[in-house]
């Protein structure tokens, strides 16, 4: 009983710490795909490409079109690779024309081989994208942040076609345990914060890349879209 109470108290204090990471970072976000800190087109890839006009390079928010898969691709994903493992704090998505993703999942990897779902209550978390309109930018936060070199967006439900444009954000003031911090660094992460992140990390031994791909998306067509409950659990949305 005492153990349980202690556990509950610990959980309560951890969620306070986690909330503060995202809160303190929300005003300090740097784009990871486009712009000065962004990646080359060669770092963007996908499960399939409808045509060169809809290649992953067109998934940048600044592009005129978007990424589109081929119709026969039943498990589509859009991928970005970074030079090094980075804390990923937030994601923006939008669509193109009448094509937009209403729900998506996120997986991530350190090596591009072993992929881990971003989970919520031990199952892949379903994020809400645009519900109405391809031109509205929808933001979601990763709380806890993702630490990875590769990230994939897996469309789950969409309008007409899963057209995706996106941006990911890191936080300049977020530091991890592994980084060396100087005495002058005001933004050192304390041990509680680090253990909070560890706590939510899925054990890589348990979930292999093969396991992941056997999980079918719950909904894959626009028709199914309206029967799916939007994820309201902990999404922080700025429309
Ligand atoms: C991009 O992904 C495809 C699978 O869709 C794969 O065959 C190809 O090797 C990847 N390209 C790079 C540069 O990683
Ligand atoms: C959908 O569009 C309608 C009309 O523009 C708007 O009132 C509503 O807030 C939108 N809903 C969502 C979830 O974006
Ligand atoms: C993790 O591995 C254990 C032992 O093999 C197994 O019982 C459990 O179901 C696995 N969990 C997941 C999420 O795969």
What order do the SSEs take from the amino end to the carboxyl end, as H and E? HEEEEEEEEEEHH
Domain tally:
1
> pLDDT under 50 segments (min length 5)?
177-239
* Annotated CATH topology: Jelly Rolls
Question: Oligomer, anyone?
Answer: single chain
Could you tell me the mean pLDDT?
76
- The appropriate CATH architecture is Sandwich
Coarse structural class = alpha+beta
Q: What is the rounded Rg?
A: 18 Å
Count of helical regions? 3
Major pleated sheet: 8 strands, antiparallel
Termini, distance in Å? 43 Å
Name given to the CATH homologous superfamily = Galactose-binding domain-like
Q: Which CATH class applies here?
A: Mainly Beta
Give the overall shape, derived from the CA principal axes: globular
Percent of residues in helical segments? Answer: 10-25%
General description of the model:
The C terminus is likely disordered. It is globular, with a radius of gyration of 18 Å. A hairpin with a 6-residue loop joins strand 4 and strand 5. With 239 residues, the protein is α+β, with helices and mostly antiparallel strands. The protein contains 3 helices and 10 strands. It has a single domain, classed as Galactose-binding domain-like (Jelly Rolls). The strands form 2 sheets. Strands 1, 2, 3, 4, 5, 8, 9 and 10 form an 8-stranded antiparallel β-sheet that branches. Strands 6-7 form a two-stranded antiparallel sheet.
Tags for this model:
alpha+beta; single chain; disordered C terminus; 3 helices; globular; 8-stranded antiparallel beta sheet; 239 residues; Jelly Rolls
């Amino acid at each position: 009983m005492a153990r349980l109470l202690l556990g509950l108290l610990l959980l309560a204090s951890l969620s306070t710490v986690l909330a503060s990471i995202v809160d303190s970072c929300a005003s300090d976000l740097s784009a990871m795909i486009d712009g000065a800190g962004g990646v080359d087109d060669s770092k963007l890839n996908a499960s399939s490409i409808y045509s060169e006009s809809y290649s992953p390079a067109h998934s940048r928010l600044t592009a005129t079109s978007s990424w589109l898969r081929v119709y026969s691709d039943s498990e589509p994903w859009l991928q970005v690779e970074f030079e090094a493992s980075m804390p990923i704090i937030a994601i923006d998505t939008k669509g193109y024309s009448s094509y937009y993703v209403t729900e998506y999942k996120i997986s991530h990897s350190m090596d591009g081989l072993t992929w881990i779902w971003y989970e919520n209550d031990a199952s892949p978390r379903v994020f809400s994208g645009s519900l109405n309109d391809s031109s509205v930018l929808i933001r979601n936060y990763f709380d806890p942040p993702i630490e990875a070199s590769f990230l994939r967006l897996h469309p789950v439900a969409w309008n007409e076609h899963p057209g995706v444009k996106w941006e990911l954000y890191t936080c300049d003031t977020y530091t991890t345990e592994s980084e060396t911090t100087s005495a002058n660094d005001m933004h050192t992460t304390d041990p509680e914060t680090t253990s909070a992140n560890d706590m939510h990390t899925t054990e890589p031994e348990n979930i292999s890349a093969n396991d992941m791909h056997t999980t079918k998306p719950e909904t894959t067509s626009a028709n199914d879209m309206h029967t799916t409950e939007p994820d309201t659990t902990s999404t922080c949305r700025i429309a």
